[in-house]
Write a structure and sequence with these properties.
alpha+beta; 8-stranded mixed sheet; 7-stranded mixed sheet
């Protein structure tokens, strides 16, 4: 495939990919992007930093001090006194973020009803849905089509609803529980209800809300909304950013008049353990009443984020444009200068996105990233593959063969480079061999002599492993582990393993005898052999990997060396490997067998049957 054809294909794919993601985002159907966008929105909020909210809303909190003095929840008579005290201060509107759905004492309910009639008040209702995420249809001619339908409404008692306006307190949160939107309109089978913040703003401004596609009108004030008539919520800072006062002070007549007069006052609970809290970028426990107050402030002052259909159209255009630009740069020149230009493009885009966010325009950060990176990376990878495919193949094979310490597997690995990339459980035979007494000798030898001695010993192991079809999976100090059954198990694994073990005994004994001084230093060796199920895998990453095996079979094989040393023989074998090797194995031809002996192994609760092998020459 030519470079030009690859570029054309990449540009077509990039354009279609960006357009598809942009279309899905226009309809709010990309849940993964929404989760990414929520995280990126939090990051941008923290970068922009906290800001001072306009002084239009005050919170009167039923806090720990109020609960200690008047109990919690407040009884209706006490709540009536609180409402009356605040209404006496002439607020623009008083909003109770409290559900009044159950009757209380008649005297208290009557007092609260009377208090609600004293001024412009709003009380809370709630909507419940059959599912946490609702599917809706978006009809251009119907501004209500994208609003999900609630299956139940929790409304205040009729006597309270007749004395006050009602607003729904639902919020739309992401998977972390952070409030992202306030649904400004709630719909049930037979009615429409404004949200609690919208009702409070409407009462305060003296203007009934009207609904348009992508906006809610409050008199002359146009509030842009996202899909489903949702208001984006961004926070001014941590809890307490909006002026908050204790309900205890209001009940005691100590609430400053300036905190009430001409303001929207919201009553809500902030008592510890009350449960009505949400995590936000600035605070992990933002009270729900402050979430509602933030939305009210956005509606009254118009300082909220603009995240509407126009913003999503810009997002879609950016997803296509940025994707095509990056793919074109990748195709244009693969050099340091080309990559620097790509980085600069991304930096400029990120700065523009952050600047728009700081000025109240919520453009998606996740969508352009998700649209641009996969096609650009795929094109870069494809070009590298086309340019260096053959060289890369041989380099990978060479590097792989150099990383794996398993003589005898080279040809197999060249044909199957992913061999043991995933651990495999299979049957195998295992041999352990180790020099005894060599550690003490090595302290008296120089490093050159130690290297020469061990090189000769390991050469014997390597030759015998190769000649019998085994694979050395590790050299351990002055010993080694050999597997039979890799790359694939065979019926004669046990027979070849015992033949290898016998040959190792014969050659190692001869090798030790050829070194003057080894006998007087009592340098010897021991061999253990066993077979059974193992777990074979690759260990290590990057430039250093090796094939190894684990499991009870490996542990038993290693412990059998101790059995050999304890009984003064060179080779100890499990009854399993002797049986699997068969009656015609080299064991009886080359030596004498004692056993089976019931043998205890270190670190193992159960015993095994072991055979002891001695050479006929001894």
């Amino acid at each position: 495939m030519s470079h030009r054809l690859l570029t054309v294909i990449a540009l077509l794919f990039a354009g279609l990919w960006g357009a598809a993601l942009g279309y899905l985002n226009l309809n709010g159907e990309v849940g993964l992007l929404d989760r990414m966008e929520a995280t990126l929105a939090d990051i941008r909020s923290l970068v922009v930093g906290a800001r001072e909210p306009p002084p239009v809303v005050s919170i009167v909190a039923i806090d720990d001090r109020t609960a200690a003095a008047h109990g919690y929840p407040l009884d209706r008579a006490t709540l009536a006194r609180l409402v009356g005290a605040i209404n006496a201060g002439k607020p623009k509107a008083l909003a109770l973020d409290i559900l009044l759905v159950d009757p209380g004492a008649e005297e208290g309910d009557a007092a609260l009803t009377a208090a609600l009639r004293q001024g412009p008040t709003v009380i809370a209702g709630a909507a419940t849905f059959a599912q946490s995420r609702q599917r809706v249809t978006d009809a251009p001619e119907d501004p209500l089509a994208a609003i999900p339908e609630a299956n139940q409404l929790l409304l205040p008692l009729p006597r309270f609803a007749e004395a006050s306006a009602v607003g729904i307190v639902n919020v739309a949160t992401d998977r972390t529980g952070t409030p992202r939107f306030i649904p400004l309109i709630s719909r049930s089978a037979d009615r429409l209800d404004p949200a609690f913040p919208l009702r409070a703003a409407s009462v305060a401004l003296g203007a009934d809300p009207s609904i348009e596609r992508g906006a809610v009108m409050l008199g002359a004030l146009r509030i842009p909304t996202d899909i489903g008539q949702r208001l984006p919520v961004t926070f001014y800072g941590g809890r307490g950013s909006i002026a908050t006062f204790s309900a205890a002070d209001a009940l005691d007549g100590k609430l400053p008049a300036a905190t009430v007069a001409g303001r929207i006052v919201v009553i809500g609970s902030t008592v510890t353990g009350g449960g009505d809290v949400f995590p936000t970028p600035f605070d992990p426990v933002m009270p729900g009443v402050e979430v509602m107050s933030t939305a009210i402030t956005h509606l009254v002052t118009g300082d909220g984020m603009v995240r509407d259909h126009r913003m999503r159209l810009i997002d879609a255009g950016m997803a296509i444009g940025l994707t095509l630009l990056l793919v074109s740069l990748v195709a244009w020149r693969r050099s340091a200068a080309g990559y620097l230009i790509m980085v600069l493009v991304l930096v400029v885009w990120a700065m523009l996105n952050l600047s728009a966010f700081a000025h109240g325009y919520w453009l998606s950060a996740a969508l352009p990233i998700a649209a641009a990176l996969p096609p650009a990376l795929m094109l870069g990878a494809a070009e590298l593959w086309l340019d260096r495919g053959r060289a890369r193949h041989f380099a990978e094979q060479s590097a792989l063969l150099q990383r794996i310490e398993a003589p005898g597997l080279g040809e197999w690995l060249a044909r199957h480079p992913n061999f043991l990339a995933t651990p495999v459980r299979q049957n195998a035979a295992v041999i352990f061999i180790d020099l005894s007494g060599f550690t003490g000798l090595s302290e008296t030898l120089g490093p050159v002599q130690v290297s020469e001695v061990l090189s000769g010993f390991f050469e014997i192991i390597d030759e015998e492993a190769r000649s019998h079809g085994g694979a050395i999976t590790s050299f351990m100090g002055d010993g080694a582990m050999i597997l039979f059954g890799l790359p694939e198990p065979a019926d004669d694994d046990a027979a070849r393993a015992v033949a290898c073990a016998v040959s190792l005994c014969e050659r190692t004994r001869t090798w030790l005898g050829a070194h003057a001084g080894f006998a007087e230093k009592k340098i010897g060796f021991k061999v253990g052999a066993h077979c059974g199920p193992i777990v074979a895998s690759r260990l290590g990453t990057g430039d250093r990997q090796q094939i190894t095996a684990a499991g009870d079979t490996v542990n038993v094989g290693a412990r059998l060396m101790e059995v050999a040393a304890r009984n003064g023989v060179e080779l100890a074998l499990s009854a399993e490997i002797v049986r699997a090797a068969g009656p015609d194995s080299v064991l009886l031809r080359a030596g004498r067998m004692d056993g089976p002996l019931e043998t205890e192994l270190r670190g193992r609760a159960s015993h095994i049957d072991a055979w002891l092998w001695r050479s006929r020459t001894l």
